[in-house]
Amino acid sequence: MEPMLFPWMLNGRKRPASTELLISFCQRDLAEMCRLIFAYSKIPYEDITIYDIKQFLKFKEENEKAGPGDFPMLEWNGKMIHGSDAIGRMLAKMYGLSGAGIYEQAQADTIIGIISNLNHAIIEYTKGAFGVYSIDKEKVYTETFEPGVKKYFAMLEKFASQGPQDGFFFSSGVTYADFAAANMFQLVAILHPELLTEYKNVKSISQRVFALPQLQKYLNSRPSLQEIMEKTRMLKNSHDEKRIQCSKKSKKAKVCMLQQMSLSLSHFVKGTEHE
């Protein structure tokens, strides 16, 4: 069995055996819930964020031996865990953020499912807005983004309205469901804040999450959504320019493609150690 080659290996860095490794595409994806759990619980981990879509797809293909499933990925105790829901649920149980008792835990899981469905509804539009690839923005907005936001935020608002008026979804305190909802609310608010005016209780939860003292160090260190959007757009423009150059030099197209694919992964991968 061939060994898996992770970005931190390619970059020549050594990772402490006790440090967890979180790998995802573009910061503020669904893996952000997991980052917030780590930050709140003061758990050290290394965050590998791949911003370039071509390098991301290449990395996924090369690491199929990591096991079935999709990104994000968490390497924990030498084992690979896939998917933000599974990772978030495991971390929440480990660090006391899954809810108090069976009922709250089931409700928190339900909220996570709603947010997962919301993400599927808006992901195409979001990737287009972030410059990952080109889309018909008006068509995608009308057909999937706006209906998805209204449908699933209405569900989240119902849960939020049933909780304590000065707290989070549940009376026992903050859970990973609050982290996930706050992250999604912030993302949609950057793109189309006018769609969120009805969801006042979800907004209040989001504000309380981002005011938590335990999160301030991490929140102040992470890039803004505007910075992430600019980064992905620059990478896409760079690829588009290289593709044009290759097409103009048909005789040298193969050489140009090989040169492009041989770019060091370190240009597109950001590894951050959090303590």
From TrEMBL:
Gene Ontology annotations of biological process type: glutathione metabolic process
Domain GST N-terminal: 18-99
Gene Ontology MF term list: glutathione transferase activity
Enzyme class, broadest EC rank: transferase
Family that this chain belongs to: Belongs to the GST superfamily. Sigma family.
PANTHER family: GLUTATHIONE S-TRANSFERASE, HEMATOPOIETIC PROSTAGLANDIN D SYNTHASE
Listed name of the protein: glutathione transferase
Lineage: Eukaryota, Metazoa, Ecdysozoa, Nematoda, Chromadorea
